Amino acid sequence: AQSVSQHNHHVILSEAASLELGCNYSYGGTVNLFWYVQYPGQHLQLLLKYFSGDPLVKGIKGFEAEFIKSKFSFNLRKPSVQWSDTAEYFCAVRVDSNYQLIWGAGTKLIIKP
Amino acid sequence: ETGVTQTPRHLVMGMTNKKSLKCEQHLGHNAMYWYKQSAKKPLELMFVYSLEERVENNSVPSRFSPECPNSSHLFLHLHTLQPEDSALYLCASSLDRASTGELFFGEGSRLTVL
């Protein structure tokens, strides 16, 4: 069965540190890839998405993600985090023409001021 | 403002109670979803409605009963729940069923079953 793995449940960083959150999926066919973010007390919202084309995708708030097909990965990055980036981040994958999203378990990111 | 409103935000109920969760979207979308969010687990898709027709039911126990009276409103009726049903229940919408990756979520209804 298809699955999505997020490597770390919790990540703690200081402000201005660089961020990389891992996301790997198990499926060999065509995929659409997504990162969602949930700030404390707020709704889940789409951060960025990949459908096709340039594997380096830029999203809101300075985030980017790179699709590496050979590694089945879609890692989220930000060169310099801010305290306001404290949130939970979810990776999700849609396979082929299946309408259902497969979700990772999320990574809680805490940024120390 | 997300465009998707859920009520109540918090609900505590006993195992013999009957309650309902409500979701309303103001985005003109044609697909609506119920998800269950539990700590340290992936989001679990419960139900999908497209143009008011239920198109997916992911083996959800019958103690959860969805209702979609029109394309803007979605309900989740709850009865004889178990403590393990305590979770955050999220409603989401998308433009259509093909746009399932681009979901707009509500803030959720935090359910506690005693």
Q: What do the pLDDT scores of chain B average to?
A: 92
For the biggest sheet of chain B, the summary is: 7 strands, mixed
Structural class of chain B: mainly beta
Q: Name the poorly predicted regions of chain B.
A: none
Number of helices of chain A: 0
DSSP E strands of chain B, number: 11
Radius of gyration of chain A: 13 Å
User: β content of chain A, as a range?
Assistant: over 45%
Average residue-wise pLDDT of chain A: 93
Detailed description of the structure:
The complex is a heterodimer of chains A (113) and B (114). Chain A is 0% helix and 52% strand. With 113 residues, chain A is mainly β. By secondary structure, chain B is an all-beta fold. Chain B is globular.
Note the topology.
The complex is a heterodimer of chains A (113) and B (114).
Chain A: E1 4-5, E2 10-14, E3 19-21, E4 24-25, E5 31-38, E6 44-50, E7 56-58, E8 64-68, E9 73-78, E10 87-95, E11 101-103, E12 107-112
Parallel strand pairs in A: 2-12
Antiparallel strand pairs in A: 1-4, 3-9, 5-6, 5-10, 7-8, 8-9, 10-11, 10-12
Chain B: E1 4-7, E2 10-13, E3 18-25, E4 31-37, E5 44-50, E6 53-57, E7 64-70, E8 73-79, E9 87-94, E10 104-105, E11 109-113
Parallel strand pairs in B: 2-11
Antiparallel strand pairs in B: 1-3, 3-8, 4-5, 4-9, 5-6, 7-8, 9-10, 9-11
